[in-house]
Amino acid sequence: MSRVVQKFGGSSVADADSIKRVAKRVLATKQAGNDVVVVISAMGDTTDDLLDLALQVSPMPAARELDMLLTTGERQSAALLAMALHDLGVEAKSYTGSQAGVITTGKHGDARIIDITPGRIHASLDEGSIVIVAGFQGVSQDTKDVTTLGRGASDTTAVALAAALGADYCEIYTDVDGIFTADPRICPKARQVPQISYEEMMELAASGAKVLHLRCVEYARRENVKIHVRSSFSERPGTWVMDLADISPLTDKEGNPMEQPLISGVAHTLSEAQITVVGVPDRVGEAATIFDAIAARGINIDTIVQNVSRISSNRTDISFTLETADARAAMETLTSIKEQVGFEEMLFDDQIGKVSVIGVGMKSHPGVTARFFRALADAGVNLGMISTSEIRISVVVDAGSVQTAVQAAHAAFGLDADGEAVVYAGTGR
Ligand code: ADP
Ligand code: ASP
Ligand code: MG
């Protein structure tokens, strides 16, 4: 008997009818002879709504209490799915992350899974039950408090369970047919890819393609779990995320080998802000002091640029991007070290976006940067900060230019499909 972990995202369980539809799909997998473990997200935009509610009650809610609140979203949908399955005449049991044995670090809002102790899941599967686990949550090993794993992290719960339970693969059901060459919500000519390597998917996710949570892909690569991303609204085959070595080379309709595309996808994010520290004294150790202080607050930095010192004053400007959600804490931290470092002022801009092109093909092909920048220039998009990795080039642009930039890059690398990509549901929030 094979064992399958299926994860359904918020847009797939947005209302009562959707939950009943998902229940039928889960039952069909069970009836095909599989042990089924379902990981479920909160209904629709519930997590955002709960966050808004918390902020109405308190501008700075305690992280522990926020986790207590947010975990209820997944708990609701898990229980409701179990009820829908009961009505279809099948045994099903829902569990919170903690009950399912998802053991985490203690960092509220961004906890890491450190162990899975799936005793109760095994017991329920042995009884012939379908098991439903509330995604995105666990319990801290140290404090025994309930934790959440970061926005979008139900994907990570699913892959972690698939690894711990030795599942054959992990299915991630969402509101598009699979992984596309760009977000189909802003690039209608995006093309679905049948397979993609863990490495490319990690870069896409890290660059803003929220179709998969970054840590879920990292986990899958480490534990060698194959992921099948597909739509819960259609029966079409989705996209397999797997080891590069297992990916079959592209062929044309007659089966002849085709050249691999240079770029496998274009990703974007609007969730970052840019801070510029102006007039930092050009002395050894000043940058270290600034970033030490920011790291001490647990804030991650993305792109960093230090410009050439202004010769007259022997000072330099340091700009960096970070998640907008962390910007306030970063500005507070910088204010607290302003005197010590002796910089002049700080500038803040949250009207930015980042557009990235990603592909293993760029390792061996020169000219990718030139083609990318030419496409943006022809589309009238002005470039801000630039950063690269071995298989990625990213540029910061005005928030208002992101869609134009994504579409221009997509076309320039020959990725445009003939038809329009389908987006089945969701608000894109
Ligand atoms: P779920 O609620 O199922 O977890 P998400 O909203 O987190 O769904 O992720 C699915 C969304 O990811 C899609 O609706 C799409 O707008 C977005 N997305 C961004 N980049 C891509 C991409 N390259 N391929 C597919 N979807 C993408
Ligand atoms: N409900 C959580 C969120 O909206 C987790 C998830 O959907 O994966 O971030
Ligand atoms: Mg998601």
From TrEMBL:
GO terms for molecular function: aspartate kinase activity. Residues 275-360 form the ACT domain. It catalyses: L-aspartate + ATP = 4-phospho-L-aspartate + ADP. The keyword Amino-acid biosynthesis applies. Its EC number is 2.7.2.4. It is an enzyme of class 2 (transferase). Pathway: Amino-acid biosynthesis; L-threonine biosynthesis; L-threonine from L-aspartate: step 1/5; Amino-acid biosynthesis; L-lysine biosynthesis via DAP pathway; (S)-tetrahydrodipicolinate from L-aspartate: step 1/4; Amino-acid biosynthesis; L-methionine biosynthesis via de novo pathway; L-homoserine from L-aspartate: step 1/3. InterPro entries: AceGlu_kinase-like_sf (IPR036393), ACT-like_dom_sf (IPR045865), ACT_Aspartokinase (IPR054352), ACT_dom (IPR002912), AKii-LysC-BS (IPR041740), Asp/Glu/Uridylate_kinase (IPR001048), Asp_kin_monofn (IPR005260), Asp_kinase (IPR001341). It holds the Pfam family ACT_9. Gene3D superfamilies: Acetylglutamate kinase-like, VC0802-like. Keywords: Amino-acid biosynthesis, ATP-binding, Diaminopimelate biosynthesis, Kinase, Lysine biosynthesis, Nucleotide-binding, Transferase. Catalyzes the phosphorylation of the beta-carboxyl group of aspartic acid with ATP to yield 4-phospho-L-aspartate, which is involved in the branched biosynthetic pathway leading to the biosynthesis of amino acids lysine, threonine, isoleucine and methionine. Belongs to the aspartokinase family. This is Aspartokinase.
